[in-house]
Amino acid sequence: MTQKATVTYLESNDMQKARAFSPAVVTEGGRTVWLAGQTTTTDLEGRDIAGQFEAQCHACFALIDKTLQRLGGSLANLVTMTVFINDPRHGDAFVKIRSAKFEAGRYPASALLTVSNFARPGIVIEIQGVAVL
Protein backbone atom coordinates (compact mmCIF):
# COMPACT_ATOMS: atom_id res chain seq x y z
CA MET A 1 0.00 0.00 0.00
CA THR A 2 1.27 3.45 -0.92
CA GLN A 3 1.73 5.92 1.93
CA LYS A 4 -0.09 9.24 1.49
CA ALA A 5 2.27 11.98 0.37
CA THR A 6 3.36 14.81 2.60
CA VAL A 7 4.52 17.89 0.73
CA THR A 8 6.57 20.74 2.15
CA TYR A 9 7.20 23.94 0.19
CA LEU A 10 10.43 25.76 1.01
CA GLU A 11 9.56 29.39 1.73
CA SER A 12 10.03 31.64 -1.28
CA ASN A 13 11.88 34.95 -1.27
CA ASP A 14 10.13 38.03 -2.67
CA MET A 15 11.33 37.46 -6.26
CA GLN A 16 10.24 33.81 -6.20
CA LYS A 17 6.81 34.77 -4.85
CA ALA A 18 6.46 37.41 -7.58
CA ARG A 19 7.36 34.80 -10.23
CA ALA A 20 4.99 32.18 -8.67
CA PHE A 21 7.42 29.33 -8.03
CA SER A 22 8.92 27.56 -5.03
CA PRO A 23 12.70 27.21 -4.71
CA ALA A 24 12.22 23.60 -3.56
CA VAL A 25 9.42 21.18 -2.82
CA VAL A 26 10.08 18.22 -0.51
CA THR A 27 7.87 15.14 -0.69
CA GLU A 28 7.70 12.02 1.46
CA GLY A 29 5.57 8.99 0.69
CA GLY A 30 2.92 8.93 -2.01
CA ARG A 31 3.20 7.99 -5.67
CA THR A 32 5.41 9.87 -8.09
CA VAL A 33 3.80 10.65 -11.44
CA TRP A 34 6.12 11.63 -14.30
CA LEU A 35 4.06 13.64 -16.77
CA ALA A 36 4.88 13.76 -20.46
CA GLY A 37 5.25 17.18 -22.02
CA GLN A 38 1.82 18.64 -22.74
CA THR A 39 1.15 20.74 -25.82
CA THR A 40 -1.99 21.50 -27.78
CA THR A 41 -3.25 23.60 -30.64
CA THR A 42 -6.91 23.12 -29.71
CA ASP A 43 -8.76 24.04 -26.55
CA LEU A 44 -10.87 21.55 -24.58
CA GLU A 45 -13.85 22.27 -26.85
CA GLY A 46 -11.80 21.53 -29.97
CA ARG A 47 -11.41 25.15 -31.12
CA ASP A 48 -8.20 26.10 -32.91
CA ILE A 49 -5.79 27.97 -30.62
CA ALA A 50 -2.66 27.60 -32.77
CA GLY A 51 -0.24 30.42 -32.02
CA GLN A 52 -2.36 31.73 -29.09
CA PHE A 53 -0.08 31.76 -26.06
CA GLU A 54 -2.53 32.38 -23.21
CA ALA A 55 -5.15 29.99 -24.59
CA GLN A 56 -2.52 27.26 -24.95
CA CYS A 57 -1.31 27.87 -21.37
CA HIS A 58 -4.79 27.39 -19.96
CA ALA A 59 -5.40 24.33 -22.15
CA CYS A 60 -2.09 22.69 -21.17
CA PHE A 61 -2.80 23.18 -17.46
CA ALA A 62 -6.34 21.81 -17.95
CA LEU A 63 -5.02 18.75 -19.77
CA ILE A 64 -2.43 18.09 -17.05
CA ASP A 65 -5.19 18.42 -14.45
CA LYS A 66 -7.36 15.93 -16.36
CA THR A 67 -4.48 13.43 -16.49
CA LEU A 68 -3.87 13.79 -12.76
CA GLN A 69 -7.59 13.43 -12.00
CA ARG A 70 -7.51 10.05 -13.78
CA LEU A 71 -4.98 9.02 -11.10
CA GLY A 72 -6.92 10.47 -8.18
CA GLY A 73 -5.07 13.78 -8.01
CA SER A 74 -5.24 17.27 -9.45
CA LEU A 75 -3.03 20.09 -10.66
CA ALA A 76 -2.38 20.92 -6.99
CA ASN A 77 -0.27 17.72 -6.81
CA LEU A 78 2.26 19.05 -9.32
CA VAL A 79 5.56 19.54 -7.45
CA THR A 80 7.84 20.58 -10.31
CA MET A 81 7.47 21.65 -13.92
CA THR A 82 9.68 22.46 -16.85
CA VAL A 83 8.06 24.97 -19.17
CA PHE A 84 9.21 25.62 -22.72
CA ILE A 85 8.05 28.76 -24.53
CA ASN A 86 8.93 30.00 -28.01
CA ASP A 87 9.20 33.70 -27.16
CA PRO A 88 10.73 35.16 -23.98
CA ARG A 89 8.21 38.00 -24.13
CA HIS A 90 5.57 35.45 -23.01
CA GLY A 91 7.36 34.84 -19.70
CA ASP A 92 5.43 37.41 -17.65
CA ALA A 93 2.09 36.27 -19.07
CA PHE A 94 2.96 32.68 -18.16
CA VAL A 95 3.84 33.67 -14.58
CA LYS A 96 0.50 35.46 -14.20
CA ILE A 97 -1.41 32.41 -15.45
CA ARG A 98 0.61 30.00 -13.30
CA SER A 99 0.07 32.12 -10.18
CA ALA A 100 -3.69 31.78 -10.67
CA LYS A 101 -3.51 27.97 -11.08
CA PHE A 102 -1.93 27.25 -7.68
CA GLU A 103 -2.61 28.28 -4.10
CA ALA A 104 -0.26 31.10 -3.03
CA GLY A 105 2.85 29.67 -1.38
CA ARG A 106 2.18 26.20 -2.82
CA TYR A 107 3.73 26.73 -6.22
CA PRO A 108 5.65 23.95 -7.93
CA ALA A 109 9.38 24.26 -8.36
CA SER A 110 9.88 25.37 -11.95
CA ALA A 111 12.20 26.09 -14.83
CA LEU A 112 11.16 28.34 -17.74
CA LEU A 113 13.10 27.92 -20.98
CA THR A 114 12.87 29.58 -24.37
CA VAL A 115 13.18 27.31 -27.40
CA SER A 116 13.24 28.06 -31.11
CA ASN A 117 10.69 25.47 -32.30
CA PHE A 118 8.27 22.77 -31.25
CA ALA A 119 7.29 19.47 -32.84
CA ARG A 120 4.31 20.95 -34.73
CA PRO A 121 3.58 24.36 -36.23
CA GLY A 122 1.33 26.55 -34.07
CA ILE A 123 2.59 25.22 -30.71
CA VAL A 124 3.96 28.03 -28.52
CA ILE A 125 4.28 26.32 -25.10
CA GLU A 126 4.97 22.89 -23.65
CA ILE A 127 4.69 21.96 -19.97
CA GLN A 128 6.29 18.85 -18.52
CA GLY A 129 6.02 17.99 -14.85
CA VAL A 130 6.23 15.66 -11.91
CA ALA A 131 3.40 15.20 -9.42
CA VAL A 132 3.24 13.35 -6.12
CA LEU A 133 -0.11 11.86 -5.09
Helix content: 25-40%
- Average predicted local confidence, pLDDT: 95
**What is the SS-derived class?**
alpha+beta
CATH topology: 60s Ribosomal Protein L30, Chain: A
The major sheet is characterized as:
4 strands, mixed
Low-confidence stretches: none
Globally, the shape reads globular
Order of helices and strands: EHEEHEHEE
User: How far from one another are the termini?
Assistant: 13 Å
Explain what this protein looks like in three dimensions:
By secondary structure, this protein is of the alpha+beta class. The chain has one domain (6-132): 2-Layer Sandwich (60s Ribosomal Protein L30, Chain: A), CATH 3.30.1330. The protein is built from 3 helices and 6 strands. It has helices at residues 14-18, 53-70, 91-101; strands spanning 6-9, 25-28, 32-38, 78-85, 109-114, 125-132. The protein has a 4-stranded mixed β-sheet, with helices on one face. A two-stranded antiparallel sheet has the order 1-2. Helix 3 links the parallel strand 4 and strand 5 (109-114). Helix 2 (53-70) packs parallel to helix 3 (91-101). It is globular, with a radius of gyration of 15 Å. It starts with 5 loop residues before the first strand and ends with a strand.
Give the topology.
Layout: E1 6-9, H1 14-18, E2 25-28, E3 32-38, H2 53-70, E4 78-85, H3 91-101, E5 109-114, E6 125-132
Features:
133 residues; alpha+beta; 60s Ribosomal Protein L30, Chain: A; 4-stranded mixed sheet; two-stranded antiparallel ribbon; 3 helices; 26% helix
Summarize the structure.
By secondary structure, the protein is of the alpha+beta class. It has helices at 14-18, 53-70, 91-101; strands spanning 6-9, 25-28, 32-38, 78-85, 109-114, 125-132.
